[in-house]
Amino acid sequence: MFRPLIFALLAASLLANVWFLTRPQPADAPNNRATAARLSPLVPTTAPAPASEPLALLRPGGEPLTTADMATLRTRLESLGLPPEIVRAVLAMTIHRSFQKRREAILRLPGPDEYWRNQGQRADPADQIALRELDREQRRLLRESSADFEFDDAAERRQFGGLPGDTVARLKRIFADYSDLEEQLYADGSDRGSSENRNRAALLAKEKRADIERLLSPDELLDYDLRNHPAAHRLRGAIGQFAATEAEFVALFPAFRAALEAAGGNETRTRTNVAEARRTREALESQLDTELQRVLGSQRFAELKDANNHLLQETRAFTASLNLPPQATTEVISVQQEFSPKLNALDRDRDLTANERDARAYALAKDARDRLIRVLGTENFEAYKRRGGAWLGSALNRAPPSTPVP
């Protein structure tokens, strides 16, 4: 967890040493390279003498950095014998600091001594356009300078697996190109949900996918999809706290992918028929649950449901805090597992009126309450409603107007 901080501090130290070694010196100044070596053991003492004109790491007045500036800085850093990842870190930090100053200029943020001014300045439409263009310029400079730096190596490994470095670089270029195009879709502030913009976004997504498929081999594409496809993200969400194996994940992925693609990929909601969108979503969830049970088997599927039922985990912790005997704990969980799904199903029954649903939910909740009081006692039951029994407390509050709530 400390690795990003270590890299940031290391890069900051290197920037200071680069300035120290490349600053202009008078002709009669002593050689300070040995001093620099004592200050930072990362800087070799065998580096060549600095050029007569130093590179301004951050140009005065906020003038934009160029690819040529970054090439010059890279050459000087490499001449110090620094590892490639450290060179990239310094380049990335230099670019970030330069563009951060330009962002602050656009937003006209208050200075550190202007304590009376609000820091949360909202960008006006013109400033938003300028900021988007600045973001594109920064990404372009990072790419052209080969300074795309990921502090968290594990995150990049998780995204790209064992793909070769040049392939990862080309994938990142594809992502950056299409990110620019996607931003241009909404640069005028148009409605993202309009049918025209949705169709244009879908076309861009299709072209982006085609570019990725042309770049990767079939095996590489499968590995990439297992890590990055929307179906993979949906599957990881369904797995939740359950300790699935890689084999189970790989076996489940094709079914999740097929189900999501049949549902329209991202399950676009219609504005005109909310009820139909809800039925479609519930049908998809039921289909995915069926696939989970088919692939995992009944026992592993039950373990998955158990692991992701936070109310059930709360109930176990609650009964443990009361030192209840195992039989009482089993009975409390049994009541919860019996009645909670019935209440959920009742809420999804749109053939009933709201009053009918409330009345039936209250009747179910009364039965569950009576059984739980017999196990826990009245005082502990009230505590249970606050710790694991929220499902029941909300149902008891749905008493019909003529029925007093106990």
Question: Could you give a short description of this structure?
Answer:
The chain has 406 residues and is mainly α. It is 69% helix and 0% strand.
Radius of gyration of CA atoms, rounded to a whole number: 30 Å
Largest sheet: none
Spans of at least 5 consecutive residues whose pLDDT stays below 50 are 1-6, 19-56, 265-271
Strand content: under 5%
SSE diagram, text form:
Blueprint: H1 3-22, H2 33-39, H3 67-79, H4 84-107, H5 125-144, H6 153-160, H7 165-185, H8 195-215, H9 218-228, H10 230-239, H11 246-262, H12 274-307, H13 310-321, H14 326-348, H15 354-376, H16 378-386, H17 390-396
Helix pairs in contact: 1-4, 3-4, 4-5, 5-7, 7-8, 9-10, 10-11, 11-12, 13-14, 14-15, 15-16, 15-17
Describe the structure.
With about 400 residues, the chain is mainly α. The chain folds into four domains: about 1-110 and about 120-150, no CATH class; about 150-225, no CATH class; about 230-310, no CATH class; about 310-395, no CATH class. The protein is about 70% helix and about 0% strand. The protein is built from 17 helices and no strands. The chain has helices at about 5-20, 35-40, 65-80, 85-105, 125-145, 155-160, 165-185, 195-215, 220-230, 230-240, 245-260, 275-305, 310-320, 325-350, 355-375, 380-385, 390-395. Helix 3 (about 65-80) runs antiparallel to helix 4 and helix 14 (about 325-350) packs antiparallel against helix 15 (about 355-375). It is elongated and about 80 Å long. The two termini are about 50 Å apart.
